[in-house]
Amino acid sequence: MSGATESPPCATDPTAADFVVRSGAAIRLVSLDGTNQVPLTAGFAERVAGLRDRAPGIGVLGELLSKNEYMRSGSYYLWDPLAAVLAAGYEVGTFSPAALSIDTDEGPTSGATRAGAGEPNAAYLTKVDATAAEDVLLGVLAGAGSFRLNACPSPSPVSVSLGSTHAPERCSCSAPDDLRDATAQRRRPIVMQG
C-alpha cells in the first residue's frame, strides 16, 4: 500500500489509501519500513533446502530459491510472506501508533505516507524479529503449523472495494451480519501491506 514513513511513496491509488487511513478502522500498516528488516538471505535459503522434503509448499520454495541466485543475495525481502504471517496473527513484530496521512497531491510525492502530530489513526510496523518470522513461515510451509486468523472474529469474508483516484465515491466496505455484530464489540484490524 505504501512505503510508510521512511520509504519512497508507492501507493497506487493515493485517494483510496487516504480514504482507508481516515476511515476510523483499526489499521495495522505492514510497510516497507518493517518488511525490509527481513531480507531473504543465503542462511534462510539453506534452512529451506534442509526442509525441502517435508511438504510440497516448502519444496516449491526450495526449488525457486535454488534456481534464482538473486533471491538469495540479501537484496530480496520476505515482503508478502511477512505480511501474511502478521495478518494471520503471529506477533513477530512491533507496531507503533501514529497519526498517518497520505499525500494525495499530484507529483513525485503522491502516495507518500506521512506520520504527523495528532491523534493516532493507525499503527505501523516498526520492528521485526526476523528469526521468529522465518521460524513461523518455515514451520507453516513444512507442515508443522498452520496460519490462524486470530484477528478475525468469524471466518466470514469481508469485501473492500476501493474506487479509483477519479471515483473515490465508489469506496465501500461490506461484511456479513455476524462479522458486523462482532466488530460492534471489538474493532477488527485492517492490515495494509506495503
Number of strands: 7
Percent range for helical residues? 25-40%
The number of helical runs is: 7
The rough form would be described as: elongated
Largest sheet: 5 strands, mixed
Taking strands numbered 1, 2, ... along the chain, how are they ordered across the largest sheet?
3-2-4-1-7
Taking pLDDT < 50 over at least 5 consecutive residues as the criterion, the unreliable ranges are 146-189
Mean pLDDT level: 75
Q: Can you tag this structure with a few keywords?
A:
alpha/beta; 2 domains; five-stranded mixed beta sheet; 7 strands
Quick structural gist:
It contains 7 helices and 7 strands, in the order αβααααβββαββαβ. It is an alpha/beta fold and 194 residues long.
What can you tell me about this protein's structure?
The protein has helices at residues 14-21, 32-35, 42-50, 56-67, 79-87, 130-141, 177-185, and strands at 26-30, 93-102, 113-116, 122-128, 159-161, 172-174, 189-193. The protein has 7 helices and 7 strands; from the N terminus they run αβααααβββαββαβ. The protein has 2 domains: 14-37 and 78-129 and 143-193, no CATH class; 39-76, no CATH class. A 5-stranded mixed β-sheet has the order 3-2-4-1-7. Strands 5-6 form a two-stranded antiparallel ribbon.
Give the topology, please.
Blueprint: H1 14-21, E1 26-30, H2 32-35, H3 42-50, H4 56-67, H5 79-87, E2 93-102, E3 113-116, E4 122-128, H6 130-141, E5 159-161, E6 172-174, H7 177-185, E7 189-193
